[in-house]
Amino acid sequence: MDSRNEFNCRIFAFIFSTLIMVFGQPAWSATFYIPDPCDPCATIQTAIDNADSYDIIEVAAGIYSGDGYWDLDFHGKAITVISSDPCDPCATVIDCSDPLDGSHRGFYFHSGEEPNAIVEGFTITNGRGVVGGGICCANGSSPTIKNCVISNCVVTGIGGGIYCDDTSNPLISNCRIIANSAGLYGGAVMCWQSSPTIKNTIICGNSAQNGGGLSCLSQSEVYVSNCTIFSNRALGGWGGGIYCAYDGTGLNIINSVLWGNTADEGNQIAIDSTGHTVTCAILYCDVRAGLGDIAIADPCNSSVSWGPGNIDKDPCFAQPGHWDENLLPDPCDDFWVAGNNYLKSQAGRWDPMANGGLGDWVIDLVTSPCIDTGNPGSSLADEPCDVNNVRVNMGAYGGTSHASKTPPGWGKLADLNNDGFVNLLDFAIMAADWLNSQDALPGDVNRNGTIDIADLEIMANQWLH
Ligand SMILES: [Ca+2]
Ligand SMILES: [Ca+2]
Ligand SMILES: [Ca+2]
Ligand SMILES: [Ca+2]
User: Fold this and answer.
1) Amino acid 26: pLDDT
2) Which protein residues have their CB within 5 A of the ion that is ligand 2?
3) Number of separate domains in the chain
4) Ligand 3 mean position to 462 CA, how many Å?
5) CA within 20 to 30 Å of 381's CA: 5, 213, 238, 275, which one?
């Protein structure tokens, strides 16, 4: 290539990358609208079939059902399927219920999709089948699923809401996975040799035989941050909230709430490690009954890395949902009555129903112990900017613009182990990582990526408070 051509190539590459940086998509990408005013036969699936990389398919509010609106297949494309109001997933519904009793799910990713294959802002409901009632990710498919509600999906096998199989590592963020069920494993999410990241997500009111909420099996390395895992049930089995089993499986959970889950063994978490190696790290979480609600089948093979910063205190949800036993004691016909899992606060809690349904901040009589007790080194991200807000909250709304607010004097930045005091125990946690540079280390209280004298100075100022 002569120097002039090389120069032109570089200019083109610069313009291309600038366009992607500025607009998040190339300027020549197309947007398809569903319904399409020019083509009454167009469906979400025909739009996907006609789309090229970086195209967007925008779906208007409404309830969609039938061929072309369920079992949606991206064919490996890097496209975005988004509702016209992605902040209100309840307005745009993919209803998989089939009057002919067929089995359908919302999305089927099986062509190696990558994180730039995006589903955003939908409710996916009434899916049926054997695996993955709402969404199935298989064959190394790792899409992004955000701002979605996945509810009332039922499978006879595994993964009532979402199934991840064979090195499929989706990002699941800002979702609500509610009232789904699986006959065997993973009422909400099932992972088999897959490593999803699940963040800012509510997993509640789901059920399965094992792993009422989440099941992680066979070389799955699952990352859970800022999630609320509440009132899921293992019916006659292990792991009400989370079930982990088989060699090489790892569970990493931080800044999350595990509360009110039930099972025969391991109400909140069960590690079924007989003959297998399973690892589990839990830090800055509110776990009901603490280690007492975590069952380990074979402690010689597996371990729980516990803390720092775990607590066992009523999270004070604004309006926790509950199971209705449906007049009969048999749990199989019970149904979930949805609530909301915002944390009560004397300084302000977001109430989506206030102000005539537009949402507004309201004041409570108590403050949740999950407010400002997340990892001191974690970013506050989009939490309300306020001088009293010194740490990220635990639970699904921590790090979001709807995180409950911090009363004056409530947050203790340098209380690294959440025992209410700043003392030698906290210093020991900071000292263990001294001069280490890594994201979100608990002792990095000024959150600049390194633990050094500046962090120690902050701790010294709060010493013995
Ligand atoms: Ca019942
Ligand atoms: Ca906070
Ligand atoms: Ca402390
Ligand atoms: Ca620092």
Assistant:
1) 63
2) 372, 383, 389, 393
3) 3
4) 11
5) 213
- Same domain (yes/no): 235, 377: no
> What are 226-268's pLDDT values in tens digits?
999 999 999 999 999 999 999 889 999 999 999 999 999 999 9
**Integer Cα distance of 17 and 14 in angstroms:** 5
Please state, in angstroms and rounded to a whole number, the distance separating the CA atoms of residues 275 and 247: 8
The set of long-range contacts for 379-387, using a CB threshold of 8 Å and a minimum separation of 24, is: 379/440, 379/447, 384/348
pLDDT digits (tens, 9 = 90+) for 165-210: 999 999 999 999 999 999 999 999 999 999 999 999 999 999 999 9
Q: Give strand pairing partners of 136.
A: 108, 163
Structure tokens belonging to residue 350? 């977001």
Tell me phi and psi for residue 262, to 5 degrees. -135, 150
Residue type, 294: I
Q: What is the CATH number of the domain that holds 141?
A: 2.160.20.10
* 373 CA distance to ligand 2 middle (Å): 8
For residues 371 and 430, membership in a common domain is answered with no
Tell whether 392 and 428 lie within a shared domain: no
Helix (H, G, I), strand (E, B) or coil at 405: coil
